[in-house]
Amino acid sequence: MKYSIELTYPTSNEWTTVVLNNFSTFLQDHAHCERKASSMAMSFVAKFPDRVEIIPELIETALEELQHFKDVYQIMSNQGIQLKHEMEPDEYANILISHCRSGKEDRMMDRLLLASIMECRGSERFKLVWQALPEGELKKFYHILWATEAKHGNIYVKFALKYFKEEDVYKRLKELTILEGEVLSKLPIRPTLH
Q1: Which CATH superfamily is domain 13-82+102-186 in?
Q2: CA of 66: how far to CAs of 12, 27, 73, 137, in Å?
């Protein structure tokens, strides 16, 4: 059974250049995204407490994301960069979530699959950052993150397959992956993860 996702829109080299030229801003956004990813995993626990088969892995994912937040915060602190008091709305995530279907089961499937797609996008972009950074601790850090985020992308598809028919999951996953590519292709390039 396949858990990985093939993104339909590859991130451009221009994005990597923008990130490297505005790395402080990227770190602030990265920290914010890790914090949100931890909250997202725990929100699944809160919304679906009866889905006991996935709760332990959701908790583990939330802890891993929180550890990533802590790690990014330490990097920022070492460089004298503060967390932003307020972050700009995440247009990418907001547009994708607006396409979630209503109804408890359909919405659960869509949110799990979108979580997977977002994690896979993060993994793709962490890989680009890792490849572009000069040798050193920061490069090593983004190499580790790239592998971890890829694992998180797979986890959410695996969760969906526990509760929904395989053909329904993959059909919807394909639709949402195409949507994600279309959304990302129309957004301006900024020094942010999404």
Answers
A1: Ferritin, core subunit, four-helix bundle (1.20.1260.10)
A2: 28, 15, 10, 20
